[in-house]
Amino acid sequence: MHASAVICDERVIENQQQSTCKARHFTAIEGIPSTYILEKLHQLGPRYYGDKSTAFAELYVEGLDKPFWVHEEYLVLQSVFFQETLQNVTSGDIITITLPSPDTFEPMLQYLYDGDADKWYDTFTPDNYLGIWRNVESLGLGIEARAICLTYYHNEIKKDLNDDMVDDDIIDDMIDDDMDDDNEMDDEECIR
Length: 192
What we know:
Helix content is about 50%, strand content about 10%. The protein is α+β, with helices and mostly antiparallel strands. The protein has one domain: Potassium Channel Kv1.1, Chain A (2-Layer Sandwich), CATH 3.30.710. The strands form 2 sheets. Strands 1-6-4-5 form a 4-stranded mixed sheet. Strand 4 (about 55-60) and strand 5 form a beta hairpin. The two termini are about 30 Å apart.
């Protein structure tokens, strides 16, 4: 299952429609590790989360009735989906995305801004866990987000499954295979 996006440019300047064809790529400052940049962004995240005046775009998630005012740097550094989607977005655009579990998106977005793993973890429940995992997969979030999901799975879901005497080897294998795929991709990226 993958997320999808519709980009819509509804800005009008001097009665002329703005072009939606401008390609845009976020590039980090050469020589500065992205982990350092992300650490600094997370420190500033609570200040910028939901800030309409500094937002890059207005994001809607199908199934939710509220806009999210988002900043390009927070999304492209942590999500393969947003790296690809925001390439053709210009400042002020309206973006609509489809996710497997819209209801779990807002706490995930807050996590992308503040990096507070504990706060995001506390929003997980046995009922919403699978939806969160599917959103993480759809958005192509990194190893840190996946580790938080796996920690919850091992601490809460697997424990409950074992308590119910359910054989969860299939689920473990599925998650382990996914993590192995991520590690292989990381290795391939290092080789390039």
